[in-house]
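Action item from last week, closing it out:
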Amino acid sequence: MGLKNPGSAYCRLIQNKLRLRYRCCHQDKLACERCEQHDKTIVYSCYAGLTEIVTPIKIDGKLIGYGFAGQFITDYKLPEEIEQLWVEGGFDVKDLRDTYKAGPFFEKPALDNMCKLFSMMLDFIVTRRYVGIRHPDVVERVMDYLDEHIAEPLSLGDIAAALKCSRSTISHKVKRKLGMNFKKLYIFKKVQHFESIIAASPELQIQEAAALVGYEDPFYFSRLYKKIRLACPSSYVDSVLRKQDLVKNNSQEPLRRHQAAGE
């Protein structure tokens, strides 16, 4: 998964301009070996300064693969080696710095939270999609119901009545399987949907996207979002806009070069 991923815009610059793809592949391989050796999720910084998460994927205790997430930045300063190689290659260091800083930034508490959520959600997806043919369990039914009614004000009692389960059963099973209570799961799902909406339509105002997931008060939603992501929703919007601008600029670069050559 990690070996075939083309990576972020910054990662592609390093691989294509400096021809260091082989180092990426080697680091991914070593990360998988460490992951298997320690049998747990690991976090590491690559040679180019990006932080990545690798977690083992298991079914019935048997390792079937690895899950990768990342290419986050935790420090806005570029590694000296990369910057030096870039300059020696005759490239504009400002382009490299700007592309690097456009990546998603997370401080350590947020990164730790991201690791837990990534491992939890990956485990859920694998269990749900690949382990035999069976009826969905209570937690899966709860999450499906939340997805389908994301804009509605729902209580634990509402979910219990809809799924014909007791409140205590839902609370116990959600806590046991996902490591969070129902209330936090409910907010987490709304945050996920908010981010999906913004990613698809970044021109929307925060209050508009928040209303689409059931929050008419944008300030209240902002407080809830910050509890989950340890950052304001505006930070996520900014990151989406930066990526959008970066993609646009990269797509226009060949045209600019062609026009310059014609001149």
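Closing note: The longest helix spans residues 233-262.
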